[in-house]
Automatic annotation (TrEMBL):
GO molecular function: oxidoreductase activity, acting on the CH-OH group of donors, NAD or NADP as acceptor
TM regions (residue ranges): none
Species name: Actinomyces respiraculi
Superkingdom of source: Bacteria
Membership in a protein family: Belongs to the short-chain dehydrogenases/reductases (SDR) family.
Protein name stated in the entry: SDR family NAD(P)-dependent oxidoreductase
Length: 253
């Protein structure tokens, strides 16, 4: 097989935030495509259920804890090298205007969306620089533009995107691809519920009157990007539902 062919048989991926939503959908799709997958998240019971369903491996870890990330990488790399890391873990807290946003929420969002991805990327990068690999960052349209109430999340997602943009420059000439997928409105089990502290009515309103994207829609984009031939780097892909033209312009029925 030429080095330019799509060689994704027996490739191995690590997926963070794998207990739910886009992360879990990505594990399922990668497994369906024949990838070996290590799923990571905090919730063990969800990881074991996903492993029973898909045959993935799993390591429970809290990516906000540096020692957990070290243990994750050591455990995964003891079984062999990794071809792709999907930095999917993250999330939003609240929809507070900047004028009243709680700095503690901003800090938590920075930890979850930025520093977790940084730590995980740093842990797997040395092996990738030696033998090749892909670092994928699941950011958001919030990484590309602001919206009222989005301040803390928008700031964190912009910062996460900057990790990708900077790494791509720092690693040019090396066999590492740096990919960003930036979704708009995706109806998942937990993103909006977490954002609104479990308020289901508020969460449901985010998706009301439109056909939102699904976790599976984004998993398709992500796996497609990873399965491009090695010379093709999908720098950044913005994906929105047809009914969403910008972060704030949404046509609801
Ligand atoms: C999720 C999309 O519009 O809530 O990342 O920021 S949005």
């Amino acid at each position: 097989m030429s080095s330019r062919a799509t060689a994704h048989v027996s490739r191995r991926a690590v997926v963070t935030g794998a207990s739910t939503g886009i992360g879990a959908a990505t594990v399922r799709l990668l497994r369906a495509h024949g990838w070996d997958v290590v799923a990571t998240a905090r919730r063990t019971e969800r990881l074991t259920a996903l492993a029973d369903e898909t045959g993935c491996q799993w390591v429970a870890a809290d990516l906000q804890v540096a020692q957990d990330v070290e243990r994750l990488a050591a455990t995964v790399l003891a079984d062999g090298p990794v071809d792709a890391v999907v930095n999917n873990a993250g999330g939003a807290i609240g929809l507070d205007p900047v004028a009243v946003g709680d700095p503690a929420d901003w800090l938590t969002m920075y930890e979850r969306n930025v520093l977790a991805a940084l730590r995980v990327s740093q842990a797997f990068l040395p092996g990738m620089r030696e033998r090749g690999g892909d670092l994928l960052f699941l950011t958001s349209v919030a990484a590309h533009d602001a919206y009222p109430g989005g301040g803390g999340y928008v700031a964190a997602k912009h910062a996460e995107r900057i990790i990708a943009n900077t790494l791509r420059q720092e690693l040019v000439g090396e066999p590492v691809r740096v990919i960003e997928i930036a979704p708009g409105i995706v109806a998942t089990e937990e993103f909006s519920l977490n954002r609104f502290g479990g308020d289901k009515a508020k969460a449901d309103a985010v998706y009301a009157g439109i056909d939102p994207l699904t976790a599976e829609d984004i998993a398709e984009c992500l796996v497609w990007a990873l399965e491009r031939p090695a010379h093709v780097n999908i720098d950044s892909m913005i994906v929105r539902p047809r009914a969403q033209a910008t972060n704030t312009l949404v046509a609801r029925r």
